[in-house]
Every structure is written in structure tokens, then in C-alpha cells.
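Customer ticket, subject: "Can you confirm the structure for GDSL esterase/lipase?"

Message body: Hello, I'm evaluating your service for our small team and ran a test protein. I'd like someone to confirm that this is what the system normally returns, since I don't have a reference to compare against.
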Amino acid sequence: MKTVGELSLLVCLIIVCFNGRGWSQRLPRPQPQQSQVPCFFIFGDSLVDNGNNNGMLTLARANYRPYGIDFPQGTTGRFTNGRTFVDALAQLMGFTRYIPPYSRARGPELLRGVNYASGAAGIRDETGDNLGAHSSMNGQVANFANTVMQMRRLFRGDTNALSSYLNTCIYYCGLGSNDYLNNYFMPNFYTTSSDFTTKAYADALIQDYTRQLTQLHSLGARKVIVTAVGPIGCIPYQLARYHGNSSRCNENINKAILLFNSELRKLVDRFNGGQLQGAKFVYLDSYKSSNDLYQNGTANGFEVIDKGCCGVGRNNGQITCLPLQQPCADRRKYLFWDAFHPTELANVIFAQSAYQSQSYTYPVNIQQLATL
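Agent reply: Thanks for trying us out. I re-ran your input and got the following:
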């Protein structure tokens, strides 16, 4: 039987033969090397979706210009002008090809990872229904289970070798934003705000998320990044609707989110403390990182922190980028690309800090997680 190291080398050789397009010459190219982990699996929403919603009947789609205006492959379904957070993170980990979306990942390509993220997705199944079709976290976990079944064939039915391989990969899970944006704080469409207090809702989300993450663990996930929900009370979409006096942001939303984030960090402690055997979870405090960037945007060259680079209405936040709309000329000066999503530069900054430092990661950074 081959060792995990030998399998990793074999996988790298297979990937060279079967992968599609790689990083563009317009992006910083990593030195030729093996990636720090053999594969990277991604679960999430529009912040990291790279095309899974393109074929769905939904308003949560970004497969039209100006989305992707700065991306080397053009418009792909990414909800920003260029790279997403996980694109930049994969590059930092040494991957020389983009992780493919589940909608088109096939054969040996599965061995380096798959992106299951879906715009409008949430921890709860009904979240995002106001926008149309999507794949919730439950659906994404089911899709991963299907991928594992396909991978068994690539390992010639050797479940022990496959399990050892999957144990070495990194898994990113970024859910929860839409459970607030497109559920709890949308009382005209959902009843959750009358069914739950903010504390009870956070607890209900954590209960569902615990089950979903436990299922991922049972399928082979060991090195897992879970992200806090960012301060969505400060995004252009909310700023376009909020008329508070004491704060620029809707602090009622932010306070509700902090309840969820607090419980998520406790969940990481429980998982790492023995609740899930062999688990190595990292809590990524995207609330703090986003808030720091929002408060100190000028230090990173951001001149506009409260408006989308493209969009319609107040703060360019009432409607997202329209097809063929002309965006702002200098995307590097904008923190937000549209009503909801960061620009490529903001994504790259987030990724670099999460990978290299422990300012926003607990108990280790992502570079350290890769070596565990």
C-alpha cells in the first residue's frame, strides 16, 4: 500500500495532466512547488462561490459583466471583480490552479479539492429562498459525500487510503451571513425573527451547524476552518436602508451576529477538545478582520469604505451591479465591490492576514494548520 506522501506525489502528477487553466500571468505566480496540502474543499455562500449558481434559477448569480472584470478568466460566477478570499488563500497554500466549482469538477480533478459554495446559501435550508434556487449547507455536505463516493473509484476502493488522504486536506466553511441577511432580518418573507429571540436563533444555527460539521468529520474532514459572520450591519446594502443617528452601521444586526460568533468559537473549542476525534478546527474571526479594515481602510489604500464600486441607489447598495454596468475606475480604492461583497484587494488582504498571522485566527493560523 502506498503511503500518504506517495499518494500525494501521484496526485500531483495526475493533476499536472488533468487540470485546466492556472493562475494568470497578471497575478503573482508562486514558485513551482507542491501545495502544502493535497486538496482544499470549500463550503460557503456568495463570498466564495465560483460558479455553482450559474445554472440555477436564481437572482443570486454573478455570471455577467462587470463581475470578473479583473479576473484572468473573465466572468466565472464569482461575486467580485477578481479573486475571492479562497482563491487568494489557495494561492498562498501553494495551489497553482483554481479549485473548481462542484458544478463542473470531474474525475481526477476532484483529488485537489472542490468548491461547493452557493450564493444565498445558509446553514438553514430555507435561507435564501427569497432569491431563488441555491445549495444550502445541507446540500453542500451531501454533494461532498457524493464526491467522496467518486473518489473511492480513483483509489480503487481502498477506503483506508482515501480516508488518510482526506484527513490531510483543508476544509473551509463560511456560512451564516445569509441566515441573517436573507432570513432573520427579512421579516416580510421569513418568520424566524418572531419565532426566535436573537440568542435562541444563534443557538439554533449552532445546533444545525454542529450536526453539519460533524457529518463532514465523518466523511474525512479533520483540518477545518470555520469563519465568523462579518459585520454585515456595515455593508452598503444595510447602509442604504439604515437611518440611525448614533452609528453609521446597523448595530442591531451586528449585535445579533456577535451572539452567533461567540457560540461558534466555543464550538471550535469543543471540537478540538475531544468532541470530534482528531479534529483540528480553526476559528477565523472575519468579524474583527472586516471591522479593522472598515475602521482603518486608508492604511491599506481604501478611500471609499461605505459604497459599492458598482450598483444602484444610495451607497450603490440598493441593487447589485447591473449587467454591463460601468464600475468604478480604480477598484483598489474601494473596500466593497457591490452591495454585499468585498473587492479583490480586500479579499487578498483578508487571506494574507488569516494565513500568516494569528491576529484573526484561533488557536493557530492557516499556515500552521496546513502543517499539523
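A couple of notes from the result: The two ends are 23 Å apart (CA to CA). The longest strand covers residues 40-44. Feel free to reply with more questions.
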